[in-house]
Amino acid sequence: MTQIAVSTQQIQAAVQAALGKSIRRMVVDHGEVTVCVAPADYLAAALALRDTEGCKFEQLIDLCGVDYSEYPEAAIDGKRFAVVLHLLSVSLNQRVRLKVFVADDEMPMVASVCSVWASADWFEREAFDLYGIVFDGHVDLRRILTDYGFIGHPFRKDFPMSGHVEMRYDAERARVVYEPVTIEPRENTPRVVRESNYGGLR
Questions:
Q1: Residue 191: what pLDDT?
Q2: Residue 185 pLDDT
Q3: Which residues of 177-189 are buried (b: 16+ CB within 10 A; e: fewer)?
Q4: N or C: which end of the chain has fewer CB within 10 A?
């Protein structure tokens, strides 16, 4: 039997009842509810969203980092980094987005939610690798997409497009070597080319 979809108003009411004063902001955009909490309330909010009647968000569908440095108007208190979770309740047929802005831009850190949803494991490693966000309590927080010797975090807005080093296989040394980047950075501005008789059309 298919569960009838829950309205955004019902989801908001359930989330409000579960999280109460820990909610810093709750909005509905494109038919989806997003709730923001403070870093100190993040782990408790995750547990409440999973366990409270009317919420029952049993599944973590996705977790990612966001760098708001180029659009700070969307951030809370001017913070640069955020962690965003997409949660699903299979039993109640509803979704919610949980967002937390990291307190310290220089040392971004929030609690790990691996103890709440096991699927957070590799998602948190990816956010650590690409954004440098540290997940306190993660038992195996190490890079997952870049090389272990990689310098920096490539999804940060200030990371250079060409990177810091390039790698190649050196046949004489029979190993991979790292060298300074030889690519000259350049900015291409696309232009629209309109042909007067393109495809035989006038």
A1: 67
A2: 67
A3: eeeeeeeeeeeee
A4: N
